[in-house]
Amino acid sequence: MTYQPGDRVALVYTDDAYTHLQPGDEGTVSSYNEQLQQLEVDWDSGSKLSMWFGDGDRVRKL
Questions:
Q1: What is the rounded distance in angstroms from the CA atom of residue 41 to the CA atom of residue 60?
Q2: Maximum distance among all alpha carbons in the chain?
Q3: What sign for the dihedral angle of Cα 54, 58, 16, 44?
Q4: pLDDT by residue for the chain (62 residues), tens digit each?
């Protein structure tokens, strides 16, 4: 799947032990590196946690 800056996403899953994000939390895509499968998200909560699809992180487009 391709993501563009400004796309809205919701967290489905992350195993990051240091985040307070929960499934269903929403954010706005700031950039996507398809080669690295890294999605940069500005979460509505203020978090800047990146999603790494190769490591199992999951989001869904809104």
A1: 12
A2: 27
A3: positive
A4: 899 999 999 999 999 989 999 999 999 999 999 999 999 999 999 998 999 999 999 999 99
Query: What is the C-alpha to C-alpha distance for residues 44 and 23, in angstroms, rounded to an integer?
Result: 13
The DSSP code sequence of 21-53 is --TT-EEEEEEEETTTTEEEEEETTS--PEEEG
Q: How far apart are CA 51 and CA 3, in angstroms?
A: 12
3-state secondary structure of 44: coil
**Residues 58, 42: Cα–Cα separation, whole Å:** 15
3-state DSSP assignment of residue 30: strand
Q: Are 41 and 53 in contact (CB under 8 A)?
A: no
For tokens 């307070």, the residue is 20
